[in-house]
Design a protein that fits this description.
The protein has 139 residues and is an alpha/beta fold. It has 4 helices and 5 strands. The mean pLDDT is 92.
Length: 139
């Protein structure tokens, strides 16, 4: 787990936990789900590690060849932070209804041919036509 300066859990794990400490872990919880029955299209907007629950939705929909449009909007600081990149590329090649848009807020010296900046209103408007008619999940 990467330490986030303002992250409650990541700071605790990096700064307070010592070798030999015992942790109690529980199953994930929440309602970040989408089966395809809820709407005929979805927009998944994620940044950083927020991609993890969105990948669960994306894998489910593509595994089941869901016919609706899937807009996957991703933001990362740098290209090296872009986890699941190869898998997403393969899924996009296989599923014409998957529209992937990625932006980097601080690519620095790393090669990045794509968009730069943060996910904002202009980025979303450029990537998703008629967003008001779509189901949106943000993580």
């Amino acid at each position: 787990m990467k330490r986030e300066e303002h992250g409650l859990v990541s700071r605790f794990l990096h700064d307070d936990i010592k070798v030999g400490d015992t942790l109690k872990l529980t199953a994930p919880a929440g309602t970040f789900t989408f089966t395809g029955a809820e709407h005929d299209s979805i927009v998944l907007v994620t940044s950083g590690v927020g991609i993890t629950p969105a990948m669960s939705v994306l894998r489910y929909l593509t595994d089941n060849n869901w016919p609706g449009d899937i807009y996957f909007l991703l933001g990362f600081r740098t290209p090296r932070d872009f986890i699941f990149a190869k898998e997403i590329e393969r899924l996009a090649e296989k599923h014409a209804n998957l529209h992937v848009h990625v932006t980097m807020s601080r690519p620095g010296d790393e090669p990045w041919p794509g968009r730069t900046g943060r996910i904002d209103k202009q980025f979303i408007a450029a990537c998703v036509p008629d967003i008001k008619s779509r189901r949106v999940h943000i993580c």
